UniProtKB/TrEMBL annotation:
GO terms for biological process: proteolysis; spore germination. It comes from Candidatus Epulonipiscium viviparus. Its EC number is 3.4.24.78. Initiates the rapid degradation of small, acid-soluble proteins during spore germination. Homotetramer. Keywords: Hydrolase, Protease, Zymogen. The lineage of its organism: Bacteria, Bacillati, Bacillota, Clostridia, Lachnospirales. Autoproteolytically processed. The inactive tetrameric zymogen termed p46 autoprocesses to a smaller form termed p41, which is active only during spore germination. It catalyses: Endopeptidase action with P4 Glu or Asp, P1 preferably Glu > Asp, P1' hydrophobic and P2' Ala. This is Germination protease. Residues 1-11 form a propeptide. GO terms for molecular function: metalloendopeptidase activity.
């Protein structure tokens, strides 16, 4: 059961309170056990967070590892030129997280999500777009060479439709094909509406299916799967209570700027985050329940995001494929 305190839903490392507070204060003080590096680019921003100690895990409430975030408003627009630039950046980030291997890499792509719920279709969509080659290596090995890895793809569905834990399905597949690495793609949740569909997070710490809507299943990571698990996620939903909380903050600041008698609005502004969030949840839960919000053009944006991620995976894991090759054939 969820705690009643201020616990806005987020799967993004850059939205952890310690990181947000550090950026708002514009200080250079390092967080204990956490290394933060920001690279501004013309069309996107890249943030690299590394958690390297138990102290860092406590501050971030996330396991040790690398968390790379690409932020750009162009992600949700039909802009092929900028998408090409972002594809190359995401591919480069993936290459840095892939395990070193002397032979041909065996990669398993896992598309987490529900094909029947549009905001949750990112994972299955990517599965349909990656270049699958394992069957070629097995049945027509003369047709391929070491310019491509041995890639398999699986969209296991959700427990509500299959009755099977996703981790059980993936574990069974791993025991049969023995991948060197898993790349899992899933929709995430954000605490800020501004990051919906405009953020890609890449990490090497695994993933919990269903985390985006607070319905975490058994985790997919190196301990449960027996091989490294790289997670790629995009926030596609925001908790309604969190959205209202942020809207209240904006409204209060606007009223303070325009009102001649600002005492009431000042009192609201001075409420603690926990008090405001708890009050909002108490008011809205009886009428709208545990509601999540997603943009109306989500079906179109999923195609942009899915193509970006799938193409980045293709050129990252297949040594012989370049950015100019990825859309040569439509499939």
């Amino acid at each position: 059961m969820e705690e009643p305190g201020f616990t806005p839903r987020t799967d993004l490392a850059i939205e952890v309170g310690a990181i947000l507070e550090r950026e708002e204060k514009e200080v250079e003080d390092e967080l204990d056990g956490v290394d933060l590096h920001i690279e501004p680019h013309e069309n996107y921003k890249k943030t690299h967070i590394e958690i390297f100690s138990a102290a860092g895990e406590k501050i971030m409430s996330k396991p040790m590892g690398h968390y790379i975030t690409i932020e750009s408003e162009y992600l949700k627009e039909n802009n092929p030129e900028i998408h090409k630039e972002i594809i190359e950046e995401v591919a480069d980030c993936l290459r840095g997280l892939l395990p070193t291997h002397s032979g041909i890499l065996k990669v398993l792509i896992i598309g987490l999500g529900n094909r029947q719920a549009t905001p949750d279709t990112l994972g299955p969509y990517v599965c349909d777009k990656v270049l699958v080659t394992r069957h070629l290596a097995e049945f027509v090995p003369e047709a391929i060479d070491d310019s491509v890895c041995h890639l398999s793809s699986l969209a296991p569905g959700v427990m509500g439709l299959t009755g099977i834990e996703t981790s059980e399905i993936v574990k069974g597949v791993c025991e049969h094909i023995h991948p060197d690495c898993i790349i899992a793609i899933d929709a995430l949740g954000a605490r800020s509406a501004t990051r919906i569909n405009s953020t890609i997070q890449i990490s090497n710490t695994g993933i919990s299916p269903g985390a985006g809507i607070g319905n975490k299943r058994k985790k997919l990571d190196i301990n449960t799967m027996g091989c490294p698990v790289i997670a790629i996620g995009v926030p596609t939903v925001v908790d309604a209570a969190t959205l209202i909380n942020d809207t209240m903050d904006t409204l209060i600041e606007s009223m303070l700027a325009e009102s001649t008698n600002a005492e009431f609005y000042s009192m609201l502004r001075d409420l603690g985050d926990q008090e405001k969030y708890s009050l909002i949840r108490e008011v809205i839960t009886p009428t709208i329940g545990n509601l999540f919000v997603t943009p109306k053009d989500m079906d179109e944006v999923i195609m942009y995001l899915g193509n970006i991620i799938a193409n980045a995976i293709n050129i990252a894991v297949h040594p012989g494929i370049t950015i100019d090759d990825v859309n040569k054939y439509r499939y």
